[in-house]
Design brief:
- The chain is 41% helix and 17% strand.
- By secondary structure, the chain is an alpha/beta fold.
- The protein folds into two domains: 196 residues, 3-Layer(aba) Sandwich (Isopropylmalate Dehydrogenase); 129 residues, Isopropylmalate Dehydrogenase (3-Layer(aba) Sandwich).
- The strands form two sheets. It has a ten-stranded mixed sheet with strand order 2-1-3-12-11-4-5-10-8-9, sandwiched between helices.
- Helix 6 packs across helix 7, helix 8 runs parallel beside helix 9 and helix 10 runs antiparallel to helix 11.
- The two termini are 27 Å apart.
- The structure holds 3-isopropylmalic acid (IPM) and magnesium ion.
- 3-isopropylmalic acid (IPM) binds next to helix 4.
Length: 350
């Protein structure tokens, strides 16, 4: 059985996952590691961004570590064959509905953020993004020609009680092990899904999690508060689209999008999907300068959440922190290290 399945994917994906693999082989030599084609490169070679074989391999592994998908060369591919469609298919196929996106400001990077040091120093925010529902998947969705000229596009935002309750439960459980505070972000002032979201979260809180502090916040205000006073937050739970947007904003607080890992989890006992939240970064792909830390930290999350090796995860996290303390910086962090040299720096600290 494969412990860790790597899906390097497109753009900088192969470069950063190669460093995560080196780290994995060093810290946990007993792990069995395999790789499978995924994303645009899989479309080019096999006609699909997510083949049945790759999905089956992902479901059979203990943890899946993805690099990145997409790039300008596939912009004209049929919509259902685009690399991004492969990623959405992988998320739903694996049933990983809970996306944990931690924004942690490493002490040595407190000056790398575009925000003032005092605003981000010590930041430890966990965004819990619903990942398999909402407007990303809602039906109907289409673009149609209008008789009088012009076209009309429709997306559907849809959530059920079950979907909201299970993601809120993840947020409350996480908060109990942290600073015991949950912000639930939606647009209940204008959206039906927002209204239901608020009701379901309120109900669940009353029934089972009254010990956790809960605050509802409108998603636009959440965006503003994230850049105004991010340390007020502990856990923020939100839907698929708002979570996509708010987590990019939160990432920048930590100094660089190249620092943020994520874990997507499903039912207990099923494999988790781990991905750096940065994309394929076509502008720097192939140049060997991408920051591999988001990929390495995604592997750290895999150790913790799927591979049952929290001890190694702690060790790896500390090694990354020491590498940063020692001044290791890729260009996104204002330094000159290559992707491989950043991998070397982490390995040296291990
Ligand atoms: C992310 C990405 C993806 C998303 C894209 C690549 C489909 O932006 O993981 O945040 O929108 O979910
Ligand atoms: Mg995104």
């Amino acid at each position: 059985m494969t412990d860790l399945l790597l899906l390097p994917g497109d753009g900088i994906g192969p470069e950063v996952t190669a460093q995560a693999r080196r780290v994995a082989e060093a810290i946990a030599p007993d792990l069995s590691i395999a790789e499978a084609p995924f994303g645009g490169i899989s479309f080019d070679q096999l006609g699909s961004p997510l083949t049945d074989e790759t999905l089956a391999a992902a479901k059979a592994a203990k943890a899946v570590l993805m690099g990145a998908v997409g790039g300008p060369q596939w912009k004209d591919a049929p919509r259902d064959k685009r690399p991004e469609a492969g990623l959405l298919g992988l998320r739903t196929g694996m049933g990983v509905f809970a996306n944990l996106r931690p924004a942690i400001c490493f002490q040595p990077l407190a000056d790398a953020s575009s925000l003032k040091r005092e605003l981000v120093e010590g930041l430890d925010l966990m965004i819990v993004r619903e990942l398999t529902g909402g407007v990303y998947f809602g039906q109907p969705r289409f673009i149609e020609d209008l008789p009088g000229g012009g076209r009309r596009a429709v997306d559907t935002q849809v959530y059920t009680t079950m979907e909201i309750e299970r993601i809120a439960r993840v947020a409350f459980e996480l908060a109990r092990g942290r600073r015991n505070k949950v912000h639930s972000a939606e647009k209940s002032n204008v959206m039906e899904t927002g209204l239901l979201w608020r009701e379901v979260v309120t109900d669940l809180h009353k029934r089972e999690y009254a010990d956790v502090e809960l605050e509802h916040i409108l998603a636009d205000n959440a965006a503003m508060q994230i850049v105004k006073n991010p340390k007020q937050f502990d856990v923020m739970v939100t839907d698929n689209l708002f979570g996509d947007i708010l987590s990019d904003a939160a990432a920048q607080l930590t100094g660089s999008l190249g620092m943020l890992p994520s874990a997507a989890l499903g039912a207990p006992g099923t494999p988790g999907l781990y991905e750096p939240i940065h994309g394929s970064a076509p502008d720097i792909a192939g140049r060997g300068i991408a920051n591999p830390l988001a990929a390495i930290l995604s592997f750290e999350m895999a150790l913790r959440w799927s591979l049952n090796r929290a001890d190694l995860a702690d060790k790896l996290f500390a090694a990354v922190n020491r590498a940063l303390e020692a001044g290791a910086r890729t260009p996104d962090l204002g330094g000159k290290l290559t992707t491989i040299q950043m991998g070397d720096a982490v390995l040296a600290e291990l």
